[in-house]
Amino acid sequence: MKRYTLYALLLILLMGSLLAWLSWSRFDDFRRYHDETAQLSAEGVADEISRLVAEKQRMVQLFAHEHVPQLGEIINNLDDEHLMMLSGHINDYFPNYFAVTLTDEKGKLLIEDFDGLVGDACRHDISTFIRDGSYTLRIHPHIDVYHFDIMAPFESGGKRGALFISFHADLLGGILRSTQTPSHRLMLIYPSGEDLIEVTAEGPRINLDRHDYRLSAEERSRIMKRIPIPGTAWEAVDMHDPELFSSYRQQLLLQMAVILLLFSAVVMAMLYSLGRAEQRRRMAEQHKDDFLSNVSHELRTPLTSIRGSLGLVINGVAGEVSEKAKGLLDIALNNSERLSGIVNDILDLKKIESGQMELEQSRHDLVMLVRRAIESNHSYGERFGAEYVLLEAPDSVEVEVDGNRILQVMTNLLSNAAKYGARNDRVEIVISVKGERVRVSVTDHGEGIDEAFHERVFERFAREGDSSIERPDGTGLGLNISRVIIEAHRGEIDFDCAGRDGTTFYFELPVS
User: Fold this and answer.
1) Which candidate, 73, 226, 237, places its Cα nearest to that of 159?
2) What's the whole-number average pLDDT of the chain?
3) In this structure, what DSSP letter does residue 216 have?
4) How many Cβ atoms are within 10 Å of 210's Cβ, its own excluded?
5) Which of 45, 55, 67, 434 has its CA 20 to 30 A from that of 402?
6) Would residue 256 count as lying in a domain?
7) Is the overall model pTM greater than 0.70, yes or no?
8) Among the listed ranges 96-110, 310-324, 362-376, 413-427, which one has the minimum average pLDDT value?
9) Both 314 and 442 in a single domain?
């Protein structure tokens, strides 16, 4: 169950990491989209305003050029009739203009400004234009209308002057309103070191509900694009709304949290279901183990009695037995011994699984143990026509082992060699010492082990599945139990198989 819990936590962690990466990717895409939007908006506004200013300048210059005679007459003879005529022509060219005036070559106003429409800022720009031939286009404040000025020079009768026309700044605000995108604010600023606001989508800065028309540090941090407007001193600025990115980030975090919470709930439900299934499996496994243990113990006693009784009958203790009856009794005895071996294997497996297999280790002569195993399995080998031969062995080898368990391993190896070796086989046993290790080898000359089965030889219930070869019955537990026993003695067990020319099983143990 702990493993399932660890897997669940890792799964939730991976899901959280994936959601975090997706959220970061979505936020990055969101910001990139608004960056591109701001770029397009600011560039579009800059182009539109640049064209508007250029068009106004062209029109004022054209008007001055086409009306040079009238402008000259006003310079020479200023009267109401000429002013009314000039005003009518200007209305035809420039509907909804704010103010108009003429200056002489020194910048002096030739038309009296009774309404105060030409303020100090306008007069300063006029002086600059007369002196330098150029001026910086900017928004001029007025109590009624914020405006910007366009000027054009003219010359009539040897006298030079300038035509001055002011336009409503809301012309620029209209362009900003038509271009501004949702969650963004477009404005014109005068970047004189203080980033003075000139015009916004709401119109001139006078329309804003604020006391300071300079951009604050927080507003500067929200500027996404600044594009200078050709022919002016303005910059088109696009800034995002204060909550644009923070609200989207919160939205992503909320979505990620909800998805992760739902995913965690599903994982926890699956974990709970797996836990219940694991609990039921363990209970079923325990019931199975208890059943096998009880059945095995219950079978062991009667099997011992049956084997003993059959042995006595075969040996004539109960009287003379005919050859035919003796053959049948031999079959019964062999099968009872086989059944007893199966019961012992099941009990050993139960001990291994529960960790209850204990070794009673003491000093033994391994050569004597091997000889005892050969002698004990002599009759078993005769059933298959097999002969056990100890080919090579030292006089003695002292090892610290559980003698009964080593005999059990030898019995498994010898019985397998007899069962799976060639008919009337000569099973060869070799004991050799190499340094601090002693090796015991058991070699048969049977069909060998299929290469595809090599990796499964020592697994539980593993039996080679070649139906073309007749195999004696067995549980498939012997080699698995042997491996557990040898490894518990700090030893190793393995096999060599040269195709179909026989098999050598061997184990190694440390020498005392």
Assistant:
1) 73
2) 87
3) P
4) 9
5) 434
6) no
7) no
8) 310-324
9) no
* pLDDT per position as a tens digit, 446-478: 888 888 888 888 887 766 654 434 445 566 788
Which tokens in the block code for residue 6? 């660890």
My answer on whether 156 and 33 are in the same domain is yes
Q: Which amino acid is at 510?
A: P
Give the strand pairing for 235-240 and 184-190: antiparallel
Do residues 394 and 275 both lie within one domain? no
Per-position DSSP letters for 35-56, written without gaps between them? HHHHHHHHHHHHHHHHHHHHHH
Residues 500 and 365 in one domain: yes
- Taking 90 as the threshold, does the pLDDT of residue 88 lie above it? no
CA 133 – CA 131 distance, rounded (Å): 6
CA 430/CA 410 separation, integer angstroms:
12
77 touches 138 (CB < 8 A):
no
For residue 27, the Cα-to-chain-centroid distance in whole angstroms is: 17
Give residue 425's domain range: 360-510
H-type alpha helices, 209-243:
217-221
d(CA 238, CA 184): 7
Q: Locate 27 and state its tokens.
A: 């936020």
134 and 227 housed in the same domain: no
Q: How many domains does the chain have?
A: 4
Please report where in the chains the tokens 């994936």 appear, as a residue.
18
Identity of the highest mean pLDDT range in 301-305, 436-440, 482-486? 436-440
Query: Do 394 and 477 belong to one domain?
Result: yes
Give the Cβ contact number of residue 425 at 10 Å. Answer: 21
Six-digit token string for 266: 């599903």
Classify residue 490: in a domain, yes or no. yes
In this prediction, residue 466 carries a pLDDT of 46
Rounded Cα gap, residues 447 and 392, in angstroms: 24
The string of pLDDT tens digits covering residues 1-19 is 677 788 889 999 999 999 9
Residue 266 CA to residue 243 CA, distance in Å, equals 34
Give the whole-angstrom CA distance, residue 265 versus residue 15.
13
Q: Do 287 and 420 have their domain in common?
A: no
Q: b vs e for 346-378, b when ≥16 Cβ sit within 10 Å of the residue's Cβ?
A: bbbbbebeeeebeeeeeebebbebbbebbeebe
Q: Is the pLDDT of residue 24 over 70?
A: yes
